[in-house]
Amino acid sequence: ERTERFERELEEKGIDFEKLERLNRLIVESISSGIMTLDEGSRITSFNKAAENITGYSLRDVYYRQVEEVFPGILTDTHALTRAGVRFEERVRKKGGGEVFLGLMMSRGQGGDAANIVIFQDLSQLKSMEEQLRRAEKLKALGELSVGIAHEIRNPLASISGSIQVLKDQVKIEGDELSLMEIVLRETDRLNALITDFLVFARPAHNQREMVNLSEIIGETIRLLENSSEAEGIEIESYLNDDIYVEGDARQIGQVFWNIFLNSAQAMEKGGRLTVTSSFRTGYDRLKTKAAEVDAAGAGKNYNFVGVQIKDTGKGIEPEKLANIFDPFFSTKSDGTGLGLAIAHRIVESHGGAIEVKSRVGRGAVFSVILPASATVH
């Protein structure tokens, strides 16, 4: 009887172990972090659901393949190879192209098929938010410093321009002297325009916010570009939704698209195609963290957004320059001031929106402008 009782208890415990094993598998598959195990030869022996979602690879794609073959460079970090429990970061390529920034930690397993356990998270969005925060802090500090300097420069500049204008009208001069005077006037006007742009960048105006038709603003800016010398040899296509409204300053929003259009046109030195497309977006993730600013721009509680995509067929932007494209005074052109895209970024940000760029050398660039749609638009 005692033996039978012990056998029954062992059998019940065996059933419990099976249930526990199923529960463990369920937990591993449900956890939001990617988990993969490696054998002694660094071959992948397991790959949970989160790992599949993060990397785009399925277990079938990676099973029993060398981890360095699937994710080159992932284990080159000295800490990963020599010490367990040390967190490190690595950029890896996803299935089908594209990159993802991972935060990883490796721990020693029990040997065999689980000699090492690698746990990782997708840090791409966090890194992007850190970059935005870094840029915002730098621009804020620069803006506060620059406003006073710009005003101090503008006052004597106005005096110089006015004095030269009076001399030109009162003194009879001609020939080279007249040309020199006209150069002074032209350059003072150019400096004044530069200071005006700099002030817009440093402190965009927040008064004059009203519901404006974004489709009309973009359409007018396209017509302005078509009639300028910058558009020579460029084919412009637009696919705009009718009656898209946003809350904002019509002049500033128009300047955003003019600056981007101009940048794209100048990147197509030998002609090309500029394509402008608009669409609605619901719950744009990157802006959910900026609820206060978005709310101030009139988007309401259920955030709906308008996305405008500007695609060109220009020479593209080198990867090392892409991260700085919206920084003030950064320009890829020898005669550029480096303020056009910085101003566009600043204005969009002040309207509770976001601006992004993707580019490959020789394949053009795609700018995306996302703005909160008016609360009255459905």
SS strand fraction: 15-25%
Question: Got a strand count?
Answer: 12
Q: What strand order characterises the main sheet?
A: 2-1-5-4-3
- Give the CA-based shape: elongated
User: Which secondary-structure class do the elements indicate?
Assistant: alpha+beta
Rg over CA atoms, rounded to whole Å, is 29 Å
| Average residue-wise pLDDT | 80
Task: Explain what you see.
- This protein is 47% helix and 23% strand.
- With 378 residues, the protein is α+β, with helices and mostly antiparallel strands.
- The strands form three sheets. Strands 2-1-5-4-3 form a five-stranded antiparallel β-sheet. Strands 7-9-10-12-11 form a five-stranded mixed β-sheet, covered by helices on one side. A two-stranded antiparallel ribbon has the order 6-8.
Question: Key features?
Answer:
single chain, 47% helix, five-stranded mixed beta sheet, alpha+beta, five-stranded antiparallel beta sheet, 13 helices
Brief sketch in words of this structure:
By secondary structure, the protein is α+β, with helices and mostly antiparallel strands.
How are the secondary structure elements laid out?
Blueprint: H1 2-30, E1 34-38, E2 44-47, H2 49-55, H3 59-62, H4 67-70, H5 78-82, E3 87-93, E4 99-111, E5 114-122, H6 124-170, H7 176-202, E6 210-213, H8 214-226, E7 234-239, E8 245-248, H9 250-267, E9 272-282, H10 285-288, H11 291-296, E10 304-312, H12 319-322, H13 340-350, E11 354-359, E12 365-372
Parallel strand pairs: 7-9
Antiparallel strand pairs: 1-2, 1-5, 3-4, 4-5, 6-8, 9-10, 10-12, 11-12
